[in-house]
Amino acid sequence: MSVDAAQLPPQPRPDPDSEGFWSATASGRIELCRCRDCGLWHHPPLERCRACAAETRFDPIAGTGSLRSFIVVRHAAVPGYLDAVPYIVGMVELDEQPGLRLVGRLLDVDPQHVEVGARVRAELVDLPPGDFVVIAFRIGEGKPDE
Amino acid sequence: MKQRTPVIVGIGRTAYGRRSGRTTLAMAAEAAREALADAGLDATQVDGAATYQAADSASPMAVADAIGSPGLRWNIDLMGGGNYASSVVTNAAMAIECGLCDTAIVYRSLNGRSGRRFGRADGVHEVGGALQFTAPQGYMTPPQWMAMWAREHQQVYGSTCEDLGAIAVTQRRHAVANEHAVQRDPITIDDYLAARWINEPLRLYDCALEIDGAVALVLTTAERAADLRRPPVGLHAHAEFTGAGGSWERWPDLTTMYSKEVAPALWDRSGLRPADVDVACMYDCFTYTVMVTLEEFGFCERGEVGDFLRSGRGTYGGDVVVNPHGGLLSEGYIHGLNHTFEAVLQLRGDAGERQVEGAEVALVTAGAGPYGGAMLLGVAE
User: Fold this and answer.
1) Which of A15, A77, A91 sits opposite B128 (nearest CB)?
2) Which CATH architecture has domain A62-146?
């Protein structure tokens, strides 16, 4: 059975700087790029630290943060999401470092119940057709299995 | 004025519409020919050419060749967004001033409606670079980025959808007097609020009107301009800034834009102030861009743009006329180069029914979010 490419979301194209991120999510871990020397986090990842030029590696993050802003997407414009509107995308400020942000969908919440500043937790979800795992968020502090 | 001082001596454009049925090369050539005729020059004198594009347009060498230029001594093809709508003009001005060329065409030609649309991601299957972390989430178009930023302004300064609507309503009112504008039917704030959501908190009339068409300018030296048909328009100053690597996710404060850096630099370089500006062609890919840049260029206080426009300070008879042509929201999205066309028209006194009386200084801004530039233009002394 062939899958219509227009029905699939844009697929990431990993590169030498990002492959650690994608191999981590594929293994069920959320890890971001961090300087081995000064400890500064970088997202998107860099081969070397922007502050001290030392080598970087991928380290686990807690996956918690605060909702900096969000949108309710009501106009279908991106392949793979044409039948998904409305959906919510949040910009999350992670607890690890001021300005360290991830963008991801907010899962299973009514737009009426979303507020800037809400505490959120990251969660891994499969990206159709299943070659990659991406980060999404849920409102609240609790772990998914609690 | 020094002999090699660069000036704008001609402007041209095609019809604007939703389905040109033409190539970007054909439209660029038409706009360039019209601009040369406006100036009283012919293509054999064109030895410089510049554009900016997103892999959606004809190259400077192809356009110059198509109109019969004997060849280019200078050309530049900037790959990027509306932030280059002012840089492309000042790059041509610098090339002329330095003697790299004598007469340059600057153009933007796109089938922004019938071809690749900026507001959509049709046919995108795989994404690299920074987009690989956001696009798979269904987040990769400018109206999404801008909505994310606009909400922060609403949180911090208490601005409202009605304030954004005041921008759309004001510009549409201006477009009524512009026969070249693609949308000329007046809208009320109720029409604005009743229109469909694109991405909350932005609605339909918050977004630029994607169209097909081309705009061209001709620049040459003040010495050569002295013998030409039109009064030359000069550049008082230019400034630009790119921060956070151009990232819409890493830029620290979503209530500010590039204009936080560009505005003070522009006022400093020109010796002018906001009160000196008669016409403000504010880059308006979205209403929110106009909101932040009006604040940061100093036309009003933070969070006061709605009141500024509702009280008539941003229109005829007020402090400054904001986008008298209707802007990208109502005239149409020629990626910002139509702002410079309008500024030149106004400064020459050729804007007809929508002429801003006594227009001597025009501000043209370009870009949004983490990257952009701006020019102050005036009738050359």
Assistant:
1) A15
2) Beta Barrel (2.40)
Q: Which of A71, A116, A126 to mutate to test the interface with B (most CBs of B within 10 A)?
A: A71
E strand or H helix at B53, and its extent? Answer: strand B48-53
Catalogue the active-site residues of B.
283, 333
What number is the ipTM of this complex? 0.95
Could you say which of A13, A71, A89 has the minimum Cβ distance to residue B132?
A13
Assigned fold of B6-116+210-225: Peroxisomal Thiolase; Chain A, domain 1 (3.40.47)
Q: Give the per-residue pLDDT at A145.
A: 46
Nearest CB partner across the interface for B151, out of A12, A69, A75: A69
Contacts 24+ apart (CB under 8 A), B39-44: B39/B9, B39/B10, B39/B218, B39/B220, B39/B228, B39/B229, B39/B230, B40/B10, B40/B228, B40/B229, B40/B230, B41/B9, B41/B10, B41/B103, B41/B218, B41/B220, B41/B228, B43/B67, B43/B68, B43/B69, B44/B68, B44/B69, B44/B70
Task: Decide: pTM greater than 0.95.
Answer: yes
Token reading at A146: 């609690």
pLDDT tens sequence across B171-223: 999 999 999 999 999 999 999 999 999 999 999 999 999 999 999 999 999 99
Q: Which CATH class is domain B136-206+235-381?
A: alpha beta
B129 to chain A, closest Cα gap in Å: 8
Write out pLDDT tens, residues A4-26.
666 899 999 999 999 999 999 99
Interface of B with A (CB under 8 A): 119-141, 143-144, 147-149, 151-152, 155, 196-201, 247, 249-250, 252, 254
- Looking at residue B348, its amino acid is R
CATH 2.40.50 range(s) for chain A read 62-146
pLDDT by residue (tens digit) across A66-116?
999 999 999 999 999 999 999 999 999 999 999 999 999 999 999 999 999
Q: Tell me if B6-116+210-225 shares its fold with B136-206+235-381.
A: yes
**pLDDT (tens digit, 9 = 90+) per residue, B338-354?**
999 999 999 999 999 99
Domain boundary assignment for chain B: 6-116+210-225, 136-206+235-381
The candidate with the shortest Cα–Cα distance to B108, out of B80, B66, B137, is B80
